[in-house]
Amino acid sequence: MSQQPESDRTEGDLRNTGMELKHERTWDYELDRIVDAVEERDAMKVGLQFPEGLKRRAGRVADDLRRLLPDETTVLLSGQPCYGACDLDTYMMRRTDVFVHFGHSPMKESDKIIYVPLFSNVEVTPIMEEARAELAAPEEDDAVGLVTTAQHMNRFDEMQAWLEERGYTVETRRGDERLTHEGQVLGCNYASADVDADQILYVGGGKFHPLGLAMEHPDKKVIIADPVNNAVHVADTEQFMKQRYAAVHKAMDAEEWGVIFCTKIGQGRWDTAEEIVEANDNAYLITMDEVTPDRLTNFGFDAYVNTGCPRITTDDGPQFKQPMLTPGEYKIAIGEKPMDSLSFDTFHGTW
Ligand code: SF4
């Protein structure tokens, strides 16, 4: 149901709904699917949850929906922070008849939840062409592992065909149940890169995704083709490892530990948190949803272990006043494991 002639749309434009959104070329909010669900369920309350980067569009999506839905329907917007499909607003989910989660592919399907994945419309093959300089020529090594993020998943077939046309054999797999698609990686899960290839082409943005990928697969060359920032790099984990070693060293003197159990629906690792607290009388279990430096300040523990989203430790780690470690790093800091066992913290399963 496009509001705009095909000729006016850029190639790859996924927007096919929208009224207020008619100048928004990037995303398809699938309003028809939401309206159908409201009708089917005679819903009175519709909850919308957007990731941080799309919250500023929430008002316009609500405007469009209000116009399309019966007057008595109430549209609510989640004000909770949201960084992934692991991070559903469960309060809103329980209190609305239709709950829509935008921006992430499903971590776990449920009749209650409508997931609207939002894909980028950026072209991927120009940056892949540049990345060829870092790939071995097909006559030397034709096997390439291909991975991408949910945002670019709509072009995965195109990426694969492009490589095949240039003589490569593309190795892909679907990682585990935490991942929706073949070839998809998350900031906490790179199981899709576990393929029979010595080189992995990661098409996507972000600094830490490919670092985690490279640390998880140290035997492979990880080439990053970032179509959003138009840049190609080979992942280099050295700086990152130094930062992690420094945090572990600093935590070695800690007497009291705070062990964080994250209450977000897809970020809970209870067994991991409990195991640490049971084995250490000086470790205290802290439950919280959003893990920020401010929220920990008043506890005053010497160091923390984060069993929630691994990105909090790796991306935000330096912002915490005390060392913030992953569960694996904690074991190194207390002498239970050798220093060279340091690895990237990954998260498997759903809830
Ligand atoms: S746990 Fe963190 S990295 Fe994993 S999906 Fe959730 S927000 Fe992303």
TrEMBL record:
Its cofactor is [4Fe-4S] cluster. It is an enzyme of class 2 (transferase). Belongs to the DPH1/DPH2 family. Keywords: 4Fe-4S, Iron, Iron-sulfur, Metal-binding, S-adenosyl-L-methionine, Transferase. Its EC number is 2.5.1.108. It catalyses: L-histidyl-[translation elongation factor 2] + S-adenosyl-L-methionine = 2-[(3S)-amino-3-carboxypropyl]-L-histidyl-[translation elongation factor 2] + S-methyl-5'-thioadenosine + H(+). The gene is dph2. This is 2-(3-amino-3-carboxypropyl)histidine synthase. One of its GO terms (biological process) is protein histidyl modification to diphthamide. One of its GO terms (molecular function) is 2-(3-amino-3-carboxypropyl)histidine synthase activity. Pathway: Protein modification; peptidyl-diphthamide biosynthesis. It comes from the Archaea. Catalyzes the first step of diphthamide biosynthesis, i.e. the transfer of the 3-amino-3-carboxypropyl group from S-adenosyl-L-methionine (SAM) to the C2 position of the imidazole ring of the target histidine residue in translation elongation factor 2 (EF-2). The lineage of its organism: Archaea, Methanobacteriati, Methanobacteriota, Stenosarchaea group, Halobacteria.
